[in-house]
Amino acid sequence: MAKKNEAEIPENTNGSALNNFFQGTKEELEKVVWPSRKQLVSESAAVLLMVTLSASLIYLVDGLFGWAAKQVF
C-alpha cells in the first residue's frame, strides 16, 4: 500500500478548507529565509547588469547578421 504524501491536505466537510489554506500559507512563509537589504540590492544590480549585457550582445549580433544579409542580397 502506498504511503500518503505529507503535503496532502485532508478533505474537510465543515467548510474550513480556506482557513487551512491560509494557515498552511502562513506556516510556509515563516520558513522562508528573506535576503538582507544589502544582498537584495547587490543581486538585483547583478541581474540588471547581466540582462543589459545580454541584450547588448544580442543587439550587436543582430546588427552583424543584418549587415551581412544586406551584403549578400
From TrEMBL:
In the bilayer, the protein is annotated as: Single-pass membrane protein
User: Which superkingdom?
Assistant: Bacteria
According to the record, the residues making up region (Disordered) are 1-20
Which keywords does UniProt give here? Cell inner membrane, Cell membrane, Membrane, Protein transport, Thylakoid, Translocation, Transmembrane, Transmembrane helix, Transport
Among its keywords, does the record have Nucleus? no
Ranges of Polar residues composition bias in the record: 11-20
TM region(s), chain numbering: 46-69
The keyword Cytoplasm is annotated on this UniProt entry: no
Q: Classify the main location.
A: membrane
Q: Where does the record say this protein resides?
A: Cell inner membrane; Cellular thylakoid membrane; Membrane
Purpose of the protein = Essential subunit of the Sec protein translocation channel SecYEG. Clamps together the 2 halves of SecY. May contact the channel plug during translocation.
Q: Subunit details for this protein? A: Component of the Sec protein translocase complex. Heterotrimer consisting of SecY, SecE and SecG subunits. The heterotrimers can form oligomers, although 1 heterotrimer is thought to be able to translocate proteins. Interacts with the ribosome. Interacts with SecDF, and other proteins may be involved. Interacts with SecA.
Which family does the record assign? Belongs to the SecE/SEC61-gamma family.
Q: PANTHER family given for it?
A: PROTEIN TRANSLOCASE SUBUNIT SECE
Entry protein name: Protein translocase subunit SecE
Q: What is the lineage of its organism?
A: Bacteria, Bacillati, Cyanobacteriota, Cyanophyceae, Nostocales
